Structure to design on (125 residues):
């Protein structure tokens, strides 16, 4: 069971196996920007007493930042050799800013990913 700030997250609209009705349900954690995460709590067992039978195998609770003030910019690049020659590359950049007062806090997040297929088409890799 996956929770965000203690509230249950709905499963993804896509079945795990890719065919509707044949696979298990899963939560797409890529929808939560890592820069918005304060901490992740993992309950391995005993969670069913609190959350019911859906939590028999455990609970992951993602706690989001609530009072972030400041700004951050991050860049990530991955490069790995391909078996067929050349390199596989992936790039991403993220930015966030936040601020507020005693009553209200606002946080803005942005992220851009350049996937390997887009890079291959652009640079002929």
């Amino acid at each position: 069971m996956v929770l965000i700030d203690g509230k249950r997250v709905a499963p993804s609209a896509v079945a795990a196996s890719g065919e509707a009705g044949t696979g298990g349900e899963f939560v797409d954690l890529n929808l939560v920007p890592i820069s918005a995460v304060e901490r992740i709590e993992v309950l391995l067992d005993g969670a069913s007493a609190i959350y019911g039978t859906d939590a028999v195998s455990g609970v992951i609770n993602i706690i989001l930042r609530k009072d972030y003030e400041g700004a951050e910019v991050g860049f990530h690049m991955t490069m790995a050799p391909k078996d067929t020659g050349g390199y596989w590359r992936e790039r991403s950049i993220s930015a966030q800013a936040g601020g507020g007062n005693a009553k209200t806090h606002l946080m803005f997040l942005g992220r851009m990913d350049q996937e390997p297929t887009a890079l291959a088409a652009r640079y002929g890799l």
